[in-house]
Write a structure and sequence with these properties.
With 510 residues, the chain is mostly helical. It is built from 21 helices and six strands. Among the domains are: 90 residues; 30 residues; 113 residues, 2-Layer Sandwich (Potassium Channel Kv1.1, Chain A), CATH 3.30.710.10. The protein is flat, with a radius of gyration of 34 Å.
Length: 510
């Protein structure tokens, strides 16, 4: 390898790169000149006399459009020449540094760059790491194991298994007629009388099959009776996958609702009329949210002395804490594990962060394109998920926010995620984006909206993708803007103070 490299001309790679960049720059320059010549020919052509006034106007309009298009193309070519010249300057700097180096030194430098690139990838993986959460299947498997908030008891071979009617009806249609004839008592018993051989009487294997009904897949132990599991799967066929079955359950087609989420405008009591009521199933709420599970268990303990419990179970939520406009999106996620922000109803946003990242955000809002609105909804829904202890919904909102990340929205996301009620994981992703796109951010208005802490984080990172000269220019521009901003604020305060003093003097004179 060393002998082959020594026979090659010195700095051949850098020379080829610079030559190709020079050719590209030359082509771009010639293209701009040719387009400018065409533009001059079109402008001369507009002087040709036309008999009809309408044709003259149409020709003038067409020439104006063509000229504006050529001007936009000329600007793009100019920007491309500037970027190519910047790259050519960087290649020239490397060529001057490596001039006179031997092959072994260049190879050592290349290996060092490869090690730095590997460290950067490891740094990015560490920044993107976060705790694992339980998905829909894992939550319902836990519910089947604990039997929390159960409303029916299955009896199989003398053993009792607490279960939930809504889940059994959604996943096993053959049990729907038997479940519909049961009383409303939470301790109602459903006896499963099956004609089984005398050798098949393992009740522990039925618990495995019950978990299979809830979550769709289980780990079968070695001691489980496979013949019993095979027989039960034939007697009680499962209709669909868990996510599809629970989505049908959300529509109320396979089993009626037994609970209601009531969003009340006042916190005076549960008897007050609610501003919004959303029907749902208590088993789903208990499986997905520890907050709802504790509330339902408390209600069940309070209703133990009642022979016929009141249905549906009413869970009252204060709208000042949990806005009702997020209710449908919340329920849809609990049933399907899919975050749908379009289900959030329109309403005010009161998080107290900077909503508009730049003038482009304002223009997008005026044109009717929803840019930062979904971002604000994801932020509020993230707070609601933390309150309800739904970790997987928190991570879904964080993923949605990171997917919306752009140069214009970066200052708003950094400001929100850096606060105590924000998201540390989103803050790390925003800082990674800042370091990766620092060269573009340094030339955009978003630079002036960055806080001092965010700018210090970018400057302290070893992986900021910008040259020292670009970083210095960006810091100088940011500092000048901050100085002008303070001067404007001081001038505004002085004007307000003088206005107050003048008004006081006028009152005394009168």
């Amino acid at each position: 390898m060393g002998a082959t490299a020594s026979r090659a001309p010195p700095n051949s790679t850098e020379h080829d790169v610079l030559e190709s960049l020079g050719r590209r720059t030359y082509i771009g320059t010639m293209g701009a000149g040719e387009f400018s010549q065409e533009g001059r020919q079109l402008s001369l052509g507009s002087k040709t006399p036309v008999a009809q006034g309408g044709n003259r106007k149409r020709r003038a309009t067409a020439l104006t459009v063509a000229a504006s298009g050529l001007a936009a193309l000329r600007r793009r070519l100019t920007r491309r020449r500037r970027s190519l010249s910047r790259k050519s300057g960087q290649g020239r700097a490397f060529r001057e540094i490596l001039l006179g180096w031997d092959v072994h030194s260049v190879h050592a430098l290349l290996e060092e760059y490869r090690a730095i690139a590997a460290l950067k990838q490891l740094y990015i993986q560490v920044a993107r790491a976060r705790p694992s959460t339980c998905d829909l299947a894992a939550d319902f498997k836990e519910l089947a194991s604990s039997g929390s908030c159960s409303d029916v008891v299955l009896i199989f071979c003398g053993a009792r298994f607490p279960a939930h009617r809504a889940i059994l009806a959604a996943r096993c249609p053959r049990l729907q007629p038997q479940l519909s004839t049961l009383s409303l008592d939470h301790n109602a018993e459903l006896r499963l009388d099956l004609q089984l051989p005398d050798s098949i009487t393992d009740s522990a294997s039925f618990a495995v099959f019950l978990q299979h009904i809830y979550c769709g897949s289980v780990e079968v132990a070695v001691s489980a009776d496979t013949n019993l599991l095979r027989h039960l799967s034939k007697e009680f066929p499962i209709s669909s996958l868990p996510d599809t079955g629970y989505q049908v359950l959300l529509s109320g087609a396979c089993y009626p609702y037994d609970s209601v989420l009531a969003f009340s405008a006042s916190s005076e009591g549960a008897d007050m009329p609610a501003a919004l009521e959303l029907p749902c199933h208590g088993a789903v709420l208990a499986a997905r949210s520890p907050f709802f599970r504790a509330a339902l268990e408390r209600m069940l303990r309070a209703a133990q002395g009642v022979k016929v419990p009141t249905l549906p179970t009413r869970i009252v939520l204060d709208q000042t804490v949990l806005p009702g406009r997020y209710g449908r999106s919340l329920l849809h996620f609990l049933y399907t594990d899919c975050l749908e922000l379009h289900l959030v109803e329109a309403g005010p946003v009161g998080l107290g962060f900077d909503r508009l990242g730049s003038l482009r955000e304002v223009q997008a809002m005026v044109s009717g394109v929803s840019t930062c609105h979904n971002m604000e909804q994801a932020m509020e829904l993230c707070h609601i998920a933390r309150l309800l202890e739904i970790d997987i919904l928190v991570q879904a909102c964080e993923d949605e926010l990171v997917a919306m990340l752009s140069i214009e929205r970066l200052p708003s996301l950094l400001a929100w995620s850096g606060r105590g009620h924000g998201s540390e994981w989103v803050h790390r992703q925003a800082l990674l984006f800042l370091c990766e796109e620092f060269s573009s951010i340094a030339t955009s208005p978003a630079l002036f909206q960055l806080s001092q802490d965010a700018l210090l984080e970018a400057l302290g990172s070893e992986y900021t993708q910008a040259s020292e000269a670009d970083i210095l220019k960006a810091v100088v521009r940011w500092g000048e803007h901050q100085l002008l901003k303070r001067m404007d604020e001081r001038e505004t305060k002085c004007i307000e103070w003088h206005s107050t003093q003048y008004g006081t003097q006028e009152c005394k004179a009168s």
